[in-house]
Amino acid sequence: MDDLYREQILEHYKNPHHFGEITDADITQEGDNPLCGDVITLYLKLDDGRVGDVRFRGRGCAISQASASMLTDMIVGKPVQELKAFPTRDLLEELGIPISPARMKCATLSVNTLRVALNGDSHEEED
Amino acid sequence: MIEARALNVEKVREDFPILSRRIHGRPLVYLDSAATSQKPATVIDAMDDYYRRYNANPHRGVYALSEEATAAYESARQRVASFINAASPKEVIFTRNTTEAINLVRYSWGRANVRVGDRILLTEMEHHSNLVPWQLLAQEAGATLEFLCIDDQGLLQLDELERKLEGVRLLGITHQSNTLGTINPIKAIVEVAHRAGALVLIDGAQAVPHMPVDVRDLGVDFYAFSGHKMCGPTGIGVLWARRALLEAMPPFLGGGDMIKRVKLREASWNDLPWKFEAGTPAVAEGVGLGAAVDYLCGFGMDAVRAHERTLVDYAMERLQDIPGITIYGPRDPELHGGAVSFTLPNIHPHDLATLVDREGIAVRAGHHCTQPLMDRLGVPATTRASFYIYNRADEVDQLVNGIQKAQKVFA
Question: Does B405 touch chain A (CB under 8 A)?
């Protein structure tokens, strides 16, 4: 049981990175997963075409909240144009645990919310 | 009350092939029977036998196989009828499941009877299947929905019943809440509803598998339930309704079998119950449901209820010792059926369910198709353990151990 949720995931869940709000954010995007009741709000401050700062608030299971925390680490400072096609698998690799089909929506809530924030919809570009 | 003889759980478990499975290297602890029950070998064999020996399209075949299939399917209907003490098998309509049975009433009775300004009264604890069909009907007919509220123990606030029944055509209510476990006092509710001129539809999906149900004694008008939660197969459910209501209702789905005489521009309807059963029916599933009824009758539903009551009692006692836990639903075991929902302060239900799954324990986590009830309870989701005839007290202990291990992971 212990190895299922890696220490890193639990650490992100208990002490999420970039947790909070940006009051003068350029983009504020809510995302939810009504089936599980997971919710996150993503705040993005843009700086010369890059993500200058990012914060999130949310509540839900450890997978959804840890993945949001990890995602903020992965996107800060990156060009918006590049992030518009942020691949889901990069985040899943960062999570580093097998995600069952039933939990996939939890794992991808943050990256789907990012795509909606930057593209207006969550459609992932075909590789 | 008749003293129910105790179930021999070890013997019962031998009847269910799936219970010998191991999950993640551990023996399966199946605590999700409120979602679907496991199936005894007699049910699996009955369906297998149908396909191997007498599979044919029933009702009009004039050859031996078709006659055998018809006899088996209609015999299942008779056994279901006597199981719920229906006045006649003609009142037993086979549907796909509880949801379809309720939708049958929504389309057939609802469209013909619900008008602008009419009210439909439901409760805060309804499963989506006894809520969304009525939202659709209300939107279509210009009717309004009203709701009976629950108190903090998950009991209906019945002192408001009479007032809320004003102008109500139909009261839709669950017999036993799939999330809270609450057993509602249907007979008393029906008396009040009928005095106010409302018909009563019961969602019995969580009741028929777990306790004696006598539709005539309850005095209800419509009663819906599913085969797959009562040891039977998926794909078959039942709508029972009083014959006079069914006679007056227009058909639901049109097609073969539900007709008497068809011309190019019109048709006349078959007799009950077939008027409401268009198309080739789910014969194997009907046969399986019949076998499931026979199987449950072997114990008697008083014994089934008594067994689950003991397990719920024990589960409540063990669970309440877990620090920080919130348990939902009635404290009185007399009012609490075989499903126990709870939340823990620092572990989301999905994380808990994922972690105990590694120990072979199957529990459900989520909103249990009762999102408005989750809103009322102020939680996004709960974890639910639900019990049936094959569950043992030591499986409650294993669940408690699993929760404690999960708490260590999240500590």
Answer: yes
Q: What is the ipTM of this complex?
A: 0.86
For residue B282, give its domain range.
Answer: 44-297
Q: Which of B364, B352, B314 is nearest to B336 (CA)?
A: B314
Q: Using a CB-CB distance cutoff of 8 angstroms, which residues of chain A are in contact with residue B361?
A: none
Cβ-based contacts of A103 with chain B (< 8 Å)? 350, 354
Q: Do residues B256 and B269 touch, judged by C-beta distance below 8 A?
A: no
In angstroms, the CA B228 to CA B209 distance is: 9
Is B380 in Cβ contact with A37 (below 8 Å)? Answer: yes
Q: Given pLDDT bands bounded at 50, 70 and 90, which one contains residue B2?
A: very low
What are the structure tokens assigned to B138, written together? 């209300």
Q: At what angle do helices A88-95 and A62-75 cross, to 10 degrees?
A: 120
Q: What fold does the segment set A7-118 form as a domain?
A: Sufe protein. Chain: A (3.90.1010)
Neighbours of B17 (CB within 10 A): 12
pLDDT of B138: 98
Determine which helix (DSSP H) or strand (DSSP E) holds B386, and give its type and residue range.
Answer: strand B382-386
What are B301-349's pLDDT values in tens digits? 999 999 999 999 999 999 999 999 999 999 999 999 999 999 999 899 9
Torsion from C-alpha of B51, B52, B58, B60, nearest 10 degrees: 150
How far is A103 from chain B, CA to nearest CA, in Å? 8
**Number of domains observed in the structure of chain B:** 2
Closest residue on chain A to B368 (Cα):
A35
